[in-house]
Specification:
By secondary structure, the chain is an alpha+beta fold. It has 2 domains: 99 residues; 98 residues, no CATH class. The chain is built from 6 helices and 7 strands. Helix 1 runs antiparallel to helix 2 and helix 2 packs antiparallel against helix 3. The termini are far apart. 18% of the residues are buried. The model has no long low-confidence stretch (mean pLDDT 91). It binds zinc ion (ZN).
Length: 207
């Protein structure tokens, strides 16, 4: 019997349960944005780890629930799943950072991406896009400076940051300008005309 080892494994399992509760909270937040699935998978990994920890703790106490399952085999599988778990978590974090701080592409690349997305020749975009636009935040009243590359960078999925509105032969572009407002990010939808001139804004929302 390895009582101390069993105790440490039980403490580890309790810490894991804490992690499980945190994952559940993350799922509850992300569910509304249809982004919860990776965290549901991570939570099932944690369930598997809990089973493994429990099984090993019992084995340390001399109780063998599944006779065909050796500690060596179980440890091997736990190592494999731990590696997958860590990689998945890192990728999710990377995506989150990119969403918050903007993916690290240059101004030229961002303008290319914009041109491709709105079907405008990139030379025209470069000629029309100003380096700096400003709009007043309706929540904090501060002047928020932005550029098209900023908006593109802040939205790795460009369709979330740029919307092309076509009506009665007139094309306009809705840009979602992200700005850190007080204690959270807000997005201000601004309208730009076909010459990429600022036209109007709509009420901002928290993101
Ligand atoms: Zn603000």
């Amino acid at each position: 019997m390895l009582i101390l080892n069993a105790l440490i494994v039980v403490v580890s399992a309790i810490i894991l349960v804490g992690g499980l509760f945190v994952s559940f909270r993350i799922i509850r937040i992300l569910r509304n944005y249809n982004l919860g699935r990776p965290w549901i998978i991570l939570s099932s990994f944690i369930f598997f780890f809990l089973f493994g920890y429990g099984y090993i703790a019992l084995r340390f106490l001399g109780i063998n629930l599944i006779s065909g399952l050796s500690i060596e085999n179980l440890m091997t599988v736990i190592f494999l799943f731990s590696a997958i778990f860590v990689v998945t978590l890192s990728v999710l974090n990377l995506n989150l950072m990119r969403n918050v701080f903007g993916s690290g592409i240059s101004d030229a690349e961002a303008l290319n991406k914009f041109a491709q997305y709105v079907h405008m020749p990139v030379r025209k975009v470069r000629a029309l896009a100003k380096r700096d636009y400003a709009v007043n935040c309706d929540a904090c009243n501060m002047a928020v400076h932005y550029s098209i590359p900023n908006v593109v960078r802040a939205h790795p999925q460009i369709e979330r940051g740029v919307v092309v509105d076509k009506g009665m032969g007139i094309t306009s572009y809705r840009l979602y300008v992200r700005h850190f407002c007080g204690n959270g990010f807000r997005e201000i939808p601004v309208s730009h005309d076909h010459k990429l001139e600022y036209r109007a804004k709509r009420p901002s929302r928290l993101v």
